[in-house]
Amino acid sequence: MRFDTLSLSASAALLFLSSSSQFTQAYILPPHAIPAPGLVARQEPVASAVNSTFIACLKPLGAKVLQRKTAGFEKERYAFDLRYTYNPEVVVMAASAADVQVAVKCAKASNVPVAPRSGGHSFEGYSIGGQDGSLVLDLSGLNSVKVTGSGATAEAKVGSGVRLGPLYLALFNQGGWTLNGGTCPSVGVGGHTLGGGFGLLSRKYGLLIDSLLEIEVVNADGNLVTASKTQNQDLFYALRGAGGGSYGVVTSFTYRPIKPAAKATSFTYNWPLSQASAVLKAYVEFQPTASRDIGVEMNVAPDGLMMYGIYQGTKADQATAMASFLTAAGKPKSSDVREGRYIDGQLRFAYIYNDPKDINALGLTGGYKPGDSRYTKGKSLVYPSVLKTSTINLLKKWGAKTPSGGTANYIIVDIWGGAVQDHSADETAFIHRDAHTVFEFVSEWDENPDWMNDMYAEFLTDFKANYGPVRGYQNYIDKDMPNWQDAYYGSAITRLKQIKKSVDPGNVFRFPQSIPLP
């Protein structure tokens, strides 16, 4: 998943100017309506319907509780995607698991829905509740990373508020370790893990949930419990793939960390869209035979196709591993292949502003915060088999379109397989173990949403005709996904609802696409 940073403060979400050579106007928009760039919007806080008992209950947390109409609240109320301006009841800046426990107990007592926020990257604003009146539990203060042990028995305990860039840097600094997560450095480890967690190491080591040893989570009663293969097994099952905000507030993860190869080779290859048919056909047919040491993605955009990835090994070995694909795809317009450390590749594909060379840039110490984003809409489809010619033609067609008003519009095509398939579909709540190829469709603010809506409609029609029941990747959550419970969770949804009833019968942890009660 690729995001380039854009300098835009959270407070800027409420004020835009519509200007041309003739006029400048101000507009007042209804709640949740983020205007296109170039408009002024002013939104008044929604009056609270919760009695003072709730605020009094939170009093032990002191200044960590940010109430409406305060400067701190306005600074922290937004998440990554500024399309949404849901108005939380309060924001709690938790600094410990004990803080989370207090907040959850108070929310339950006053029937206020709880919205955990790790990195705040939910495409549908669920990190701020997906509705007005939630308790947003900001977990950025739970940011410790500690590696203990060595070799095959090493463990990495990670606070649920850590972002991926700082996580990778901390693991590297504690002995050269890493984890098999995604590339975007500002994504929070919490939601990313709980939805599965695919990255450039997944074909070799599986999903991020496959590296989990145990999870500490505050349940609906405000108790801190441990979920693992030996404790609270049903909860451990549900949290691995369907755990984002539905069952509790995770405060820490314990993973089995990974020692990457001593030398790793990062690479990019670029082709014009005129070669799209041959390149995409070669790409998806490469999946079954590709070395597990290859982690790769393909961007399809109006300026062409870009393949980028990391190979676990030397530059010479990478050339051998990629040879069959490159022969079938045809000569790229350009390429950039670099041998170095794995963390150098992580930095390269983090796309941090100004393309830094120092790995310390992964620490995101330059002030990256929720709001440094574009207005983003994402969708997904999970393909179980090699793409048909009709699907490749759609990629070529829609990749070439440049909609008006969009700062970036592209399709990311990931080939999965490898170690992702080493785990059975019923081992965790993540059902997409047989995924061959996964698409992420991204529009980073588009004044005219037709690019996304019309494009996705064509891909859905093609999918239903060629691949069976529609499947989507829950980490690219989409409120418009048809039959979303089946698309994200398939046959697991029945068990997930029963676990929900067992651990959260009062539905404390709820948002528009949370796992519902049976």
If you had to describe this structure to a student in words, what would you say it looks like?
With 518 residues, this protein is α+β, with helices and mostly antiparallel strands. It folds into three domains: 56-138, Uridine Diphospho-n-acetylenolpyruvylglucosamine Reductase, domain 2 (2-Layer Sandwich); 145-260, Uridine Diphospho-n-acetylenolpyruvylglucosamine Reductase, domain 3 (2-Layer Sandwich); 264-356 and 370-489, Vanillyl-alcohol Oxidase, Chain A, domain 3, CATH 3.40.462. It contains 14 helices and 18 strands. The protein has helices spanning 52-57, 71-76, 97-110, 164-173, 189-194, 202-205, 233-242, 276-286, 315-329, 342-348, 389-399, 450-466, 484-489, 493-503, and strands at 18-19, 24-25, 65-67, 90-93, 114-117, 135-138, 145-148, 155-159, 212-218, 224-228, 249-255, 264-271, 294-301, 304-311, 334-340, 376-383, 408-415, 437-444. The strands form four sheets. Strands 15-12-14-13-17-18-16 form a seven-stranded antiparallel sheet, sandwiched between helices. A five-stranded antiparallel sheet has the order 7-8-11-9-10. Strands 3-4-6-5 form a four-stranded mixed sheet. A hairpin with a 4-residue loop joins strand 1 (18-19) and strand 2. It starts with 17 loop residues before the first strand and ends in a 15-residue tail after the last helix.
**CATH topology annotation of the largest domain:** Vanillyl-alcohol Oxidase, Chain A, domain 3
Q: Which CATH architecture of the largest domain would you pick?
A: 3-Layer(aba) Sandwich
**Content of β-strand:** 15-25%
Share in helix: 25-40%
Average of per-residue pLDDT values: 88
The order of strands across the largest sheet is 15-12-14-13-17-18-16
Measured between the Cα atoms of the first and last residue, the distance is 33 Å
Quaternary structure:
single chain
User: Structural class of the secondary elements?
Assistant: alpha+beta
Q: So what's the CATH class of the largest domain? A: Alpha Beta
- Uncertain residue segments: 1-47
What is the overall shape? Answer: globular
- Number of discrete helical segments: 14
* Strands, total number: 18
How would a crystallographer describe the biggest sheet?
A: 7 strands, antiparallel
> What Rg, in angstroms, do the CA atoms define?
22 Å
Integer tally of domains: 3
Signal peptide: 1-26
Family: Belongs to the oxygen-dependent FAD-linked oxidoreductase family.
Domain FAD-binding PCMH-type: 84-260
Organism: Linnemannia elongata AG-77
